[in-house]
Amino acid sequence: MRALISEWILGLFGWKVKGRYHDQLMSCVIVVAPHTSNWDFIWGILARNVYRLNARYLIKDSFFKPGLAWFFRWTGGIPVDRSKKTDLTERLKSMLQRGDNLQIVFTPEGTRKWVEKWKTGFYWVAVDTGLPIVMHSIDFKKKEFDTHPPLYPCGDWEKDKLKFEAFFRDKTPGNPEGFNPSF
């Protein structure tokens, strides 16, 4: 029901969800880009419902203020303190070892502003945990979400990053001046 309602809302605003999610991937790293607008969150939550994902996402801990924290937890938010190195990979590994299904969303730009280069933590989390990476894009010009088949990282960032750049290169963000398609 949630998927149908979300698809209806997206359709009302002209958005389409292309591709289908691979059901056999109960645990994976999901990369979503471009991420230049607050609307990305709203449309993204609706698209997540259409894809029938139970994905959780990383968000800076400053959003977890009294009165708002419940909302971000309810929608799958995991607070991250970006001011220091954390044990995120170890926490994710621990969840997997307990047998938890884990679909974790990363926005590798790390912010809605233009960045010199994308953060690579998502890649190393996938390598360290043995999880595949599924790329999801949001394209404001076409008003569509798309997904790429799972990528199993080889551990050579320079080689694998070409695949990410190729998939995201032609996507139009909500705020084009905030998007750097180069890793």
List segments where confidence is low: pLDDT < 50 over at least 5 consecutive residues. none
In whole angstroms, how far apart are the ends? 38 Å
The radius of gyration is: 16 Å
What percentage of amino acids are in beta strands? 15-25%
The structure class reads alpha/beta
Number of DSSP E strands: 7
Q: Please indicate the count of domains.
A: 1
Helix content: 25-40%
Order of helices and strands: HEEHEHEHEHEEH
Count of helical segments?
A: 6
Shape: globular
Q: What about the largest sheet?
A: 7 strands, mixed
Report strand order across the widest sheet. Answer: 1-7-6-2-5-3-4
Q: What would the average pLDDT be, to the nearest integer?
A: 85
What this model shows, in words?
- The protein has helices at 2-12, 39-50, 69-74, 88-97, 121-129, 157-168; strands at residues 16-17, 28-33, 56-60, 77-80, 103-106, 133-139, 144-147.
- With 183 residues, the protein is of the alpha/beta class.
- It has one domain (2-178).
- The chain has a seven-stranded mixed β-sheet with strand order 1-7-6-2-5-3-4, with helices on both faces.
- The longest helix is centred in the first third of the chain and has 12 residues, at 39-50.
- The protein starts with a helix and ends in a 15-residue tail after the last helix.
Topology, pairings included?
Blueprint: H1 2-12, E1 16-17, E2 28-33, H2 39-50, E3 56-60, H3 69-74, E4 77-80, H4 88-97, E5 103-106, H5 121-129, E6 133-139, E7 144-147, H6 157-168
Parallel strand pairs: 1-7, 2-5, 2-6, 3-4, 3-5
Antiparallel strand pairs: 6-7
Helix pairs in contact: 1-2, 4-5
